[in-house]
Amino acid sequence: MGRARLRVTPVGLGLAALGRPAYINLGREEDLGHDRSVAAMRARTWEVLDAAWEAGVRYVDTARSYGRAEEFLAGWLRERRIPPGALTIGSKWGYAYVGGWRTDAERHEEKELSAARLHRQLGETRALLGDHLSLYQIHSATVDSGVLDDAAVLDGLRALREEGVAIGFSTSGPRQADTIDKAIETGLFDTVQATWNLLERSAEPALARAHEAGLGVIVKEGVANGRLTARAAPAELRAAARERRTTPDALALAAALARPWAGVVLSGAATTGQFHANLAATRVTWDDDLDVTLAGLVQAPEDYWAARAALPWS
């Protein structure tokens, strides 16, 4: 996938919901219960990693800000004796976890896209993941942040790329397309990770351009933080899923998998049951009729991102 030719599978596993006690996915109380101790979250992470590995998933996505996700992943790699290169691992820098392992923290993460944070967090990631690190990404790059114009950051990323680590960036917010196009112009990046789902499709033309330029595309938030699952899916999606004898989340992820520019679609499962339900997307046939039927779900980017920002950490 991408200019770096990363070895991936169509479905990958993202650890955002597993490495910390609180996140913005709907239904975490039902999924995780009240035991959010480090030991309990580590055990859950390993269970889902085991399920993903056994199912043939070979891309795992994490970040410095995902609580102890890198630590949990590193322990699993050692315990399962997974050799470097057998699993493609991407991590991200730019946000720091500041939640203190509390679900009721005032703030859970803090963003700083500086060269100093890049070098500090890269050292932290390498201390945990070592030679397993395949891809290092800017976490939620935006045009307004200035990170894509920061010579010190770009030089640091180029140096890392020369060492054999692929370089990528993730995007967020209603101007994802602007960020993607600006990043393409730099000629530096191997991958882009962006939000695309049946509610938020505004980045699609830019992602097609990125794919055409040789970047691998990683799709995140394919079920919109739970809004496209059985817990909150719009009626149209529920009906379409029933007609095809599948679940809303599988159908939503199948839509992402059907995009010709999509290299990896992430499952953000917090339980093995969710993971297997997500993986069913690979057995769903997406067609033009579904595109037409579900086209009305699309929201204005500003509305989508405002609704996402209002989701509670739980």
UniProtKB/TrEMBL annotation:
Residue ranges annotated for the NADP-dependent oxidoreductase domain, each copy included: 45-288
Entry superkingdom: Bacteria
Pfam families for this protein: Aldo_ket_red
Coiled-coil regions listed: none
Protein name stated in the entry: Predicted oxidoreductase
